[in-house]
Amino acid sequence: MDYDVAVIGGGPAGYVAAIKAAQLGGRVVMFEKDVVGGTCLNRGCIPTKTYVKAAEYLHHIRNAKTFGITVDVGSVSVDMPRLVAFKDTVVKKLTGGVASLLKSNGVEVTRGEAKLEDEHTVSSDDKRFSAKNVILCGGSLSGRIPVPGIDHPKVLTSDGMLEVREIPRRLAVIGGGVIGCEIATAFRAFGSEVTVVEALPRLVGTMDGEISDSVLKTFRKNGIKVLLDAKLASVSDRNGSPVLSVEGEGDIEADIVLLSVGRSPDLTCLGAMSGKITAERGRIIADDHMRTNINGVFAAGDIAAGRPMLAHAAFKMGEIAASNAMGRDEKANLKNVPGCLYTIPEASSVGLTEEDAKAKYDILVGKFPMAVNGRTLASGEHGGFIKVIVEKKYGEILGVHMVGESATELISEAAVIMEMEITAHEAAEIIHPHPTFSEAFMEACADALGRCVHLPAKK
Ligand code: NAI
Description:
By secondary structure, the chain is α/β, with parallel strands linked by helices.
């Protein structure tokens, strides 16, 4: 065998797997058809955060008068080509960093599309590479829907949206999930008229219902038009512009349409082993060790079934796959994977939603509104909450859901507490600095137990 481990795909699952296997003493080759870093660094998590940051600046500029700061808000605008250039610089810096990490760990990186020939052979550009173990990390692609006219050239996926150099006057978003809500937030702040068309009765349907309600309220307050329970019938063309026809709502004409209806695993890496490696609804079945049904073949990241399609989950899966490929016996614990939504304000979740917890357990719900959190008010904000779902008998924290300033940072504390199985009784006793956003978590734990000092007494 030429290598101990061959990794197909250099995204968050793949590059972490490659580095981990090398750290454990393996001779490793990693194949990447594009630029290392995958969707997360090149077309997803990182580039979109530069747009959300720009939107936050605009939000603060528009609220500056709250603090007595005088700004000519009317003259503030976004130079889109410069923002795109900044985004590209950030992406380049991070993908370059990943390339250096791979190099410093002695991982051989091969540029090209790789496919499995058999369980020990990978082919790329007519070359064959043999490895004792193969880790499949092919990632995912933007999903499509079979709606007539959906191939209109101005219907873009998030990949295309991140290359747009002119702010559209009218942006329509098909799919009010995480990507749809983040792009809608950014472009609304940039000045676009935004309409979100969502098939379900709520936005961000995988998150807690109160988060969905809160995002909807903020969107509508900010002038984003949201159509829920919407059935998109077709996309047509009017003088070069795409027009969405939504049942019962009529036509929505736009300059650009974002299609953000989920992602589909990219299984091209299976090559000749397609059909031999067990998959379920287009995603590869892997056990907690990230092993597929074929000995020596592992799968990690977005292509692995039953796990969240999130970069931080992919990091963990890649690490575990590599450890096991190098002879260890480790399981991927993905019990408490936080999910983040980078809207304004931000939202985040870990564990069970209130709806799911209620169906399984006898629960207590504690909630602290950020409208009475000192740091939030001093920051000129007022919306949001931290909600804690607690199992009644033992006080186990089953889920934490937040909307508000820094919610995507604050969720880590909740994840740690849940991972360490610290109860709500204990969490309510932990001294948090004041004034901070984070003290609202402690207050929410206390509220669940009916002993929050900073909320009015409950009758
Ligand atoms: P998503 O699954 O979050 O949302 C897709 C939405 O489209 C759903 O609400 C669905 O009901 C709706 N939809 C589907 N078909 C539709 C139709 N015909 N008409 C109208 N609405 C329709 O998928 P999204 O937003 O594309 O994100 C893809 C993946 O990327 C997610 O799995 C997510 O985990 C990951 N991601 C995570 C981010 C984060 O953590 N902040 C940011 C961006 C992406």
